[in-house]
Amino acid sequence: MAKFLALFTKITVLIALLHQSIASESLQRCRRDTTCVLTPEVTEGPYYWNTTLMRQNISEDRDGIPLRIQILVNDINTCTPIADAAVTMWHCDAGGIYSHYIQASQNVQNPQKDNSTFLRGILLTDANGLVTFDTIYPGWYIGRSIHIHVKVHLGGTYLNETSYYSGAKYVHTGQLFFNDSFSDLVNEQTPYTNHTGSRTLNSQDGIYASTKGYTLMAVQYANSSSGFSGGLTTTVTLAVQGLSSANTTTVASTTDGSQESTTSNSLTSSCGGHTGGRPFWFW
Ligand SMILES: *[C@@H]1O[C@H](CO)[C@@H](O)[C@H](O)[C@H]1NC(C)=O
Ligand SMILES: *[C@@H]1O[C@H](CO)[C@@H](O)[C@H](O)[C@H]1NC(C)=O
Ligand SMILES: *[C@@H]1O[C@H](CO)[C@@H](O)[C@H](O)[C@H]1NC(C)=O
Ligand SMILES: *[C@@H]1O[C@H](CO)[C@@H](O)[C@H](O)[C@H]1NC(C)=O
Ligand SMILES: *[C@@H]1O[C@H](CO)[C@@H](O)[C@H](O)[C@H]1NC(C)=O
Ligand SMILES: *[C@@H]1O[C@H](CO)[C@@H](O)[C@H](O)[C@H]1NC(C)=O
Ligand SMILES: *[C@@H]1O[C@H](CO)[C@@H](O)[C@H](O)[C@H]1NC(C)=O
Ligand SMILES: *[C@@H]1O[C@H](CO)[C@@H](O)[C@H](O)[C@H]1NC(C)=O
User: Where does the Intradiol ring-cleavage dioxygenases domain start and stop, copy by copy (predicted)?
Assistant: First the structure.
């Protein structure tokens, strides 16, 4: 009996060690492979608007340095690109103003909403899971570092501009960030120089902290020999729960309420995204 107990203990310890080593290996693998780490959910903020503007170029009349952003939407569980994902983007102009909320973003008392639509748009990913938006480098406003808002909906059907995109499930609300050293250079260019006051850095922004840097984008000159005048390019991956495993809320369309909940995708830890997939010891 004692012998059996000793053997049992040894085996238990061995299994525990094995689990520990595999778990840590899986953690490391997860960290290396950031595109298969669930992109952290962060607040939608007060400036979302459920428009139906399906378009690549969201710049309209806004002055600023042209920026092309390519976004890859990946399924966290299969680690493969998702086609026909609806990616919604919105951000402020060089002076920190959001369309539809021009008064609110200038701190006007009792602000009225307006019908301007600059720097907002929606695109469906292609077969490779990619969308490309043409916009301008965002400005900033008091209390936040420079960022771009995004939402991802899956499983909807696009009919036309009237009936739009229905039957979708919401899987992601997030924010994209820029390297502050690069933003320093941008803010030396017109019209960004027009903005007075003190800019909040990523290191001072609690929302940036909660993204753990997963959506920090590396920006490049589109044409290295022409600097800012040639425009900028960047890419980012949004890794979301696929339709099969998503803890999602069914919504009528991407035009659902202007204060859509951000809590339905509650997994926010970097490697917790795999909980819907295989158990860790299979890794
Ligand atoms: C986007 O639209 C703006 C304004 O209509 C235009 O000036 C700009 O060249 C367009 N960007 C691209 C990449 O086509
Ligand atoms: C915005 O458009 C809506 C719908 O057409 C209209 O009811 C509203 O008065 C408009 N708001 C402004 C400020 O023009
Ligand atoms: C859009 O699709 C709906 C549903 O099929 C249809 O009723 C409507 O007439 C279409 N609108 C346009 C502008 O094609
Ligand atoms: C931002 O860019 C600078 C200059 O290229 C680089 O030294 C720094 O490490 C970058 N910061 C982050 C957080 O990536
Ligand atoms: C520059 O700032 C002033 C004062 O805030 C504003 O009236 C003007 O429209 C701004 N110009 C540009 C190009 O943003
Ligand atoms: C890149 O910029 C240089 C310098 O302005 C210009 O001569 C060249 O034609 C540009 N290349 C492209 C591909 O636009
Ligand atoms: C946007 O949401 C509001 C509030 O829920 C709703 O009344 C409106 O119809 C939606 N707009 C569109 C274009 O669907
Ligand atoms: C799904 O999300 C909701 C809202 O955050 C949460 O209450 C619920 O526990 C989640 N369900 C699962 C299975 O994770």
Answer: 44-142
